[in-house]
Design the sequence.
């Protein structure tokens, strides 16, 4: 297989060693285990893994989070294994059987431009913290990605090589990284395919380090990131609108000034922090400005000719009108403005593929053994 396996591990049990041995005897090209600051008590497990064929152990000096561990493994593959179709990630707690890992990897080889999610069936006997985490993120993904997926937090997923360099730019380092991965795939127009897998848990799921409260809040922060940017944009827009309206007495002039000020903030911040887009400004900016002009025109019509006569307050009419347009604006930005079209994706595929072996990013707090 032209697929490498990456397993982030924090204070693992012996089941990780069993999985690593199975992978070493499988068709997987290579296996990278990332020791995410497990400490001296677990060194013996990793030392045994190091001696296995085609197996590499990377070590964090301290616990940095699942997302950080995945990025460390991705960075190693990008820098040292050119020509791979991509990587398959799996958890260290025994949830993923070898047959399912290989099946997801083979699916990637058959669909090299797609993310393959190993989707679990969430029965009543599944640990409640896993069911709770999945329920939270399923609803988030419906909003952020525009598609309902049955298992958004699965650790078994195959990632195509074209997406790997983009994932290294994502700032999140915990469980929320896996949600940001799906958002990045959305805006790179990478298809998502769900592949059914077995659902395996040890009694009580003792080796899982997912905290249903803390880690769910981190995942919720992804939604907060969207909401906070929108809130700040609205404050800038409405503040400038009020000031300009008092200065000129002209609603249209105030609307143009407000939209201009809001655009100067919202475009760069939304592009990077919200939609995780690395698209070219020459493509994205005209789309964005076209949307701003269209939404501004509709908002002006609504507040001037429809809402203001009813509420007798131009500022209140503006807030109501733009509130009505918020979801529409978000969907257009998500699905059109900040998404790469297929021709753009194809054009960069060769460029990314040829440069992957030359990517050199610092790997602080990482030891290679």
Sequence:
């Amino acid at each position: 297989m032209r697929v490498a396996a990456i397993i982030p591990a924090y204070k693992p049990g012996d089941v990780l060693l069993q999985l690593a041995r199975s992978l070493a005897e499988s068709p997987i090209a290579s296996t990278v285990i990332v020791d995410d600051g497990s400490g001296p008590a677990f060194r013996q497990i990793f030392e045994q893994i190091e001696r296995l064929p085609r197996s590499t152990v990377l070590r964090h000096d301290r616990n940095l989070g699942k997302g950080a561990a995945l990025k460390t493994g991705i960075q190693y593959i990008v820098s040292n294994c050119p020509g791979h179709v991509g990587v398959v990630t799996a958890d260290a707690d025994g949830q993923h059987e070898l047959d399912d890992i290989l099946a997801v990897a083979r699916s990637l080889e058959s669909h090299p431009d797609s993310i393959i999610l190993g989707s679990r069936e969430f029965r009543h006997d599944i640990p409640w913290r896993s069911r709770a985490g999945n329920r939270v993120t399923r609803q988030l993904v419906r909003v952020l990605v525009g598609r309902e997926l049955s298992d958004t937090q699965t650790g078994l997923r195959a990632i195509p090589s074209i997406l790997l360099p983009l994932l290294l730019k994502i700032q999140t380092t915990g469980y929320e990284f896996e949600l940001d991965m799906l958002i990045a795939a959305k805006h790179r127009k990478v298809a998502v395919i769900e592949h059914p897998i077995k659902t395996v848990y040890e009694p009580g799921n003792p080796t899982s380090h997912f905290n249903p409260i803390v880690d769910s809040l981190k995942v919720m922060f992804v939604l907060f990131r969207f909401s906070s940017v929108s809130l700040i944009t609205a404050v800038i827009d409405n503040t400038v609108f009020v000031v300009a309206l008092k200065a000129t007495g002209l609603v249209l002039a105030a609307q143009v000034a407000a939209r201009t000020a809001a655009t100067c903030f919202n475009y760069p911040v939304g592009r990077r922090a919200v939609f995780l887009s690395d698209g070219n400004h020459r493509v994205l900016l005209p789309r964005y400005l076209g949307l701003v002009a269209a939404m501004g025109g509709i908002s002006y019509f609504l507040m001037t000719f429809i809402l203001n006569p009813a509420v007798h307050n131009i500022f209140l009419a503006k807030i109501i009108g733009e509130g009505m347009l918020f979801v529409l604006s978000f969907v257009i930005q998500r699905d059109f403005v900040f998404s790469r079209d297929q021709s753009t994706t194809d054009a960069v595929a060769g460029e990314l593929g040829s440069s992957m072996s030359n990517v050199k990013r610092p790997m602080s707090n990482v030891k290679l053994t």
